[in-house]
Write a structure and sequence with these properties.
Largest sheet: 2 strands, antiparallel
Protein name: EF-hand domain-containing protein
InterPro entries: EF-hand-dom_pair, EF_Hand_1_Ca_BS, EF_hand_dom
Keywords: Metal-binding, Repeat, Signal
Number of strands: 8
Strand content: 5-15%
Helix content: 55-70%
Pfam family, one: EF-hand_5
Number of helices: 9
Distance between the termini: 61 Å
Order of helices and strands: HHEHEHEHEHEHEHEHE
Structural class: mainly alpha
Oligomer: single chain
Domain EF-hand: 32-67, 237-272
């Protein structure tokens, strides 16, 4: 019996090795994307020519280290590292907030079809129905992950690759956005009936004077309230991530980042994006292979 148990154990051990070897390797770290490369170029392209040279990259990195080193002792403490990042993040969030508000003014004008100076419930729901029908690509009256992405009209040029924004607001331009905004019970789907009912309720909440129309101020104030809540949430999340990055850069775990540690992290990041090793990074280069992220910020 002992011999049989030993043989069975050996068989199971060998079999498990074959099973492990047969499984495809799972990607580790953050998958490089054109959007993440565009973000890298946006952050380090000093002369805005679409290419980040090794010299530009080194100059920006030095500026960030010097700016963060508030007491000029040659190292970054946690609060110095986070504060330097927070200053850059706040500037970006402010600029994107202004852009979102500008787009909202344009949206108000587009919704006000009869140019009455306000948005009626009919105008509001008409816009909502168009958005629903566009995303409901299988035309079953339900938005879910079963809906294929809408096809681009024939002959229309693809959107240019853009850097990732710091601020992301859920929108009705995708299945994910629709679910984030309207899937209240979390079942992964939104029926048209539930969608229009939720929009009616939102219209009434926004119509503060109860006159049955949304003024430009009412529409804008409701959006700005959601916008500022999203900014606060984004800021909190991003600063927590900065603390995680600090721990990763602090290789000797002495609770501070030396100039050498900071530079080594930057060297790894630049080399990762510079896939043709020509000391410059542009959108024309191939993306890096999928590997553990060496992001530095």
């Amino acid at each position: 019996m002992k011999t049989m148990n030993k043989a069975l154990s050996l068989f199971l051990a060998v079999s498990s090795c074959y099973l492990i070897a047969a499984e495809p390797a799972k990607p580790k770290g953050h998958q490089p994307t054109p959007e993440s490369k565009a973000s890298f170029i946006r952050d380090y392209d000093l002369n805005k020519d679409g290419t980040v040279t090794a010299e530009e990259f080194a100059q920006v990195r030095q500026q960030r280290f010097s700016s963060g080193d508030e007491n000029q002792d040659g190292v970054l403490q946690l609060d110095e590292y986070v504060n330097e990042y927070a200053n850059r993040l706040d500037k970006r969030l402010h600029a994107e907030r202004e852009g979102q508000i500008k787009q909202t003014h344009t949206r108000i004008g587009a919704l006000d079809k009869d140019k009455s100076g306000s948005i009626s419930l009919a105008e509001y729901q008409d816009s909502g129905e168009r958005a629903f029908n566009f995303i409901d690509t299988n035309k079953d009256g339900v938005i879910s992950k079963a809906d294929p992405a809408p096809k681009r009209p024939a002959g229309e040029k693809p959107e240019p690759v853009r850097a990732r924004p710091a601020l992301v607001m859920p929108t009705t331009h995708s299945v994910a956005g629709m679910l984030a905004m309207y899937d209240k019970d979390g079942d992964g789907k939104v029926t048209k009936e539930d969608y229009l009912a939720e929009r009616t309720a939102a219209f009434k909440r926004t119509d503060l004077d109860g006159n049955g129309d949304l003024s430009a101020d009412e529409y804008l104030n409701e959006f700005v309230d959601r916008l500022d809540r999203q900014i606060a949430k984004t800021r909190q999340s991003q600063l927590k991530q900065a603390e995680v990055r600090f721990a990763a850069l602090d290789k000797d775990k002495n609770q501070q980042i030396s100039a050498a540690e900071y530079q080594a992290s930057g060297d790894r990041m630049f080399a990762r994006w510079d896939t043709n090793a020509d000391k410059a990074v542009s959108m024309k280069e191939a993306l890096p292979a999928i590997e553990p992220s060496q992001r530095a910020d």
